[in-house]
């Protein structure tokens, strides 16, 4: 008799990506301020540990639509712990935490015009 209770694993790298939940910044910010926050995070992210190639893949995924982001994380071997990509791991177990502001816009973003 075989193992009737075992099921094949369908996704190698964790969860299917989803849009981040709406969030609000502590104060209203402009698109330029949001871009500056994102640039500062990505410029310093490799210093938090992990591999630069994984950080680069996460940045590309964060800047993409969900379908392309899923392809990027799958191709890079990134294990998505939180489906909104706020917590990920690489294949060696290094942890990658992404703030919501690099993944989506806040609800209190000040639009020009």
TrEMBL record:
InterPro entries recorded: DC-UbP/UBTD2_N, DC-UbP/UBTD2_N_sf, UBTD1/2
Gene source species: Miscanthus lutarioriparius
Region entry Disordered, spans: 1-26
Full protein name: DC-UbP/UBTD2 N-terminal domain-containing protein
Source domain of life: Eukaryota
Annotated DC-UbP/UBTD2 N-terminal domain residues: 15-112
Pfam families to which the protein is assigned, alphabetical: UBD
């Amino acid at each position: 008799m075989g193992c009737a209770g075992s099921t094949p694993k369908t996704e190698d790298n964790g969860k299917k990506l989803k849009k981040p939940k709406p969030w609000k910044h502590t104060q209203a910010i402009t698109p330029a301020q949001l871009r500056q926050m994102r640039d500062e995070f990505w410029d310093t992210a490799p210093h938090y540990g992990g591999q630069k190639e994984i950080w680069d893949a996460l940045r590309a995924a964060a800047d993409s639509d969900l379908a392309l982001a899923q392809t990027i994380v799958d191709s890079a071997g990134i294990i998505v712990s939180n489906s909104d990509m706020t917590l990920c791991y690489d294949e060696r177990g290094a942890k990658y935490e992404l703030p919501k502001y690099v993944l989506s816009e806040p609800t209190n973003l000040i639009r020009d015009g």
